[in-house]
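Students often ask why inverse folding is considered easier than folding. One informal answer: many sequences map to the same fold, so there is more than one right answer. In these notes we will look at a single instance of the problem. The structure comes first.
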C-alpha cells in the first residue's frame, strides 16, 4: 500500500516558530517501491534457482546472486528458503488453477473435459521443473505436503461441481459419488502429468490428452463418438 502523501506545506508564518525535524515521509514511497521491486526480483530469481537445482539443492546465496542483491537483502524480505519457496508456489497455484473442467452443459460435454485436460497438461508442462521441486519439498517437509494437498483440493472441488452438473444433465453415471470420483480422476491426470513432464517419461502430447479424456469419460459412462 502506498504511503500517504505528505500534507501540503503551509505558508510561512511571520512569527517565529520552534524548529521541527524534517519529515522523512517524502522518501518513504521510494523505499516502498524499491523494497517491492527487490522482493519481486527475489521471488523471480528463486523460481529460476528452484527450477534449475530443485528444492533440496537450492541455496539462498544463489537466489540472492540471481536477483542481483546481497544475501542480507534476502533476509529483509524472507526468513528462510522455505518461506520464499512458499511465495513461489503461491504464484504457481494462481497459474495452474486457471485450468478448469468446464460446466458440462454444452452440446458436446466431452469437449469440455478435453479442453480442461489440455489446459491443465499445458500448464504442467510449462512448469514441470517447479512441479518436480514441489514434489521434493513435499517429501521432506509436511508444510509443503499440506500446500500440495490444498492445491489438489481446489482441482477436486472444481471437478466435483462439474461431475454433479453432468449427472443432473443425465450425461454422467448418477450412482457415482462426485467427490470421490473427482479425487480419483484428478489423481490419474496429475500423476500422469508428473510422470510425463517432471519424471521425463514423455509420450506424444495429443495422445496423452486423448487418452486421459477418454478415460475420464469412460469412468463417468459419458457418451462419446
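Output (designed amino acids):
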Amino acid at each position: 500500500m502506498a504511503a500517504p502523501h505528505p500534507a501540503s506545506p503551509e505558508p510561512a508564518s511571520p512569527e517565529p516558530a520552534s524548529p521541527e525535524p524534517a519529515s522523512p515521509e517524502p522518501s518513504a514511497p521510494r523505499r516502498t517501491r524499491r523494497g517491492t521491486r527487490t522482493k519481486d526480483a527475489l521471488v523471480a530469481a528463486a523460481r529460476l534457482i528452484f527450477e534449475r537445482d530443485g528444492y533440496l539443492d537450492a541455496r539462498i546465496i544463489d537466489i540472492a546472486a540471481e536477483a542481483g542483491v546481497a544475501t542480507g537483502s534476502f533476509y529483509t524480505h524472507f526468513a528462510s528458503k522455505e518461506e520464499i519457496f512458499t511465495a513461489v508456489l503461491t504464484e504457481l497455484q494462481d497459474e495452474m488453477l486457471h485450468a478448469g473442467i468446464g460446466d458440462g452443459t454444452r452440446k458436446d460435454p466431452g469437449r469440455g473435459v478435453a479442453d480442461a485436460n489440455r489446459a491443465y497438461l499445458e500448464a504442467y508442462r510449462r512448469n514441470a521443473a517447479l512441479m518436480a521441486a514441489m514434489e521434493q519439498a513435499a517429501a521432506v517437509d509436511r508444510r509443503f505436503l499440506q500446500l500440495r494437498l490444498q492445491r489438489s483440493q481446489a482441482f477436486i472441488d472444481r471437478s466435483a461441481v462439474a461431475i454433479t452438473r453432468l449427472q443432473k444433465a443425465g450425461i454422467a453415471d448418477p450412482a457415482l459419488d462426485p467427490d470421490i470420483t473427482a479425487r480419483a480422476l484428478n489423481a490419474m491426470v496429475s500423476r500422469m502429468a508428473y510422470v510425463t513432464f517432471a519424471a521425463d517419461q514423455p509420450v506424444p502430447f495429443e495422445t496423452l490428452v486423448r487418452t486421459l479424456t477418454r478415460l475420464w469419460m469412460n469412468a463417468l459412462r459419458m457418451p462419446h463418438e
